[in-house]
Design goal:
This protein is of the alpha/beta class and about 325 residues long. It has 16 helices and 8 strands. The strands form 3 sheets. A 3-stranded parallel β-sheet has the order 1-2-3, sandwiched between helices. It has a 3-stranded antiparallel β-sheet with strand order 4-5-6, with helices on one face. Strands 7-8 form a two-stranded antiparallel ribbon.
Amino acid sequence: LKRPEAKAALLKMVEKCDVFIHSVRHLAMERLGLTYETLSAVNPGLVYANLYGFGRKGEYAGQPAYDDTIQGMTGVPLLEAAAAGEPRYLANVMADKVSGLTAAYAVNAALYARATTGVGQEVSVSMFETLASFMLTEHMTGAAFDPPISEPVYQRIVTKERKPFRTKDGYVGATVYTNKHWQRFTDIVGQPELRDDPRFKDVAARLKHVADYSNLLQSFIQDGTTEEWMAALNKAEIPAARIKSTTDLLTDPHLEQVDFFKTMEHPVDGTLKFPGPPVEFSKTPAAIQGLPPEQGQHTQEVLREFGLSEVEIAALNIK
């Protein structure tokens, strides 16, 4: 894109595009001459999406960002320390994925605005601000008031006792939350008198004494097998699940029944398995339309689709 002929090819494509999306720092886009001002002059209806680490404004503007960086700056490791004893990142590239999903709905919102107003626009998504919003949604709690009435931490979520319950042969995730759930649980264990314990008499009391409550549940659940507890909890309509590994997901019966995984044949790597689209469209079904392309595999094909001639494509000297 530093070459004039390549930039000219891109601008020709932009003429027919709905969306231009990039994850390059703003100064680099300025140097390339590919800012919103330049591209919208070619196509006023364009939705131009910037995916940034920190955006263009504020103290952190223009700094590089990785998933670990953003997790660390938005409280994730210290919340994990409150729950698990030491700071650590989530075993998931959450900041990258949450930012990508945020960009997807932001772009779609801009496309809808264009459909109703005829006007394109520039959209900017900052990883830092996106994950800060994502993390604070439940953790603001009393800090939403001015002056604050508590620290911005949702205590029920960070308590060390909020974890799967150990059974004789595995773990179950049981949410004995409502009064109805609690009453049914005391019936399962044959101790209805526990309902009168002031620590557990209602949801507010159980949240206040969440450690005692979780330890009490664990003391009962550890005496049965996972299968026994799943049967009892399901019968009582108490939300519960076997604790599974990511390996277990590959053979999960529900995922098999909804045809979640898709397979495709790769010319070099053989049969490959992919998670399929997790949404259903009644009239425009989603599908995996092809294998992950090799770098540059479709470049010439795409350029032809946008009307570049063979002479113009040859001039780009694409390897």
